[in-house]
Amino acid sequence: MPTVAVLCDPPREGVVLADLAATTPLSVAEAADLYAAMCADVFRAVEASASDLLVNYRPDEALPDGTGKPNEPDETVKDAESAVRALADAALDDPSAARYEVQVGSTFAARMGNTVTHLLDTEEASSVGVIEPTAPFLTRGDLDGMAMKLRRSDVVLGPTSGGRVHYAGFASPVDFEDAGAPPAVGTLTDRAYDAGHGVDFGPMLPVVETREDLIGALSLIRARRRAGREVPTRTTACLGDLGLELVADDDGLALSKPDTDSD
Q1: Which one, of 30, 31, 36, lies nearest residue 83 by Cα?
Q2: In the beta sheet, which residues pair with residue 48?
Q3: Are strands 199-201 and 245-249 parallel, antiparallel or unpaired?
Q4: What CATH number did the domain enclosing 188 receive?
């Protein structure tokens, strides 16, 4: 059975989407709300697919506190596991279908590698896809299509802008040390060929990690809604609630929202 592991953090202020809060009109609280909405869309896409859903989260002691230092658990907020479980429970039609595991590793590449290797070697998953909540445009069809490609190729990558990937799928492991080094799509391809594996690619889809990503996502959502096409429902609703708008400026497009200066 194919498995999709969603590597996520609790939607905590200062922990998630810090770059967006620093470079857009979004506050740290609003960035956390957007992250939670994208999580929900990603969880639902995996639930609707033919893959098992594994939610991988970092424990409190491994999370930054927004200052770059290790996070000290705060009694006033939910612990990481409870926060992630609550988010998935609210998003999924069948919350019992999700499994939860703590991420192991000091870097994203290490956490991805540990997850993939464990599932392939110990749990005998037929393939493992790794995604993050910043890919809310992923659909059931996208996930099932890439899982099918993994029957023929040992590695399948979903490319996005800037040489990044929105999906990394493996039917066999690779050397994961520094495997996310930019450009990730090239690094992972090199690692696959170094291990003697074939590589295929999924659809080009946007992610939402930076200011430019958010401008692109808003543009795509507006266009898809106008055309009557599918959009990530919770992400779209959250962006609407936040009042984010696209405005033209001397550099092209900028972001604005009520009572906030354009960035």
Answers
A1: 36
A2: none
A3: unpaired
A4: 3.90.550.10
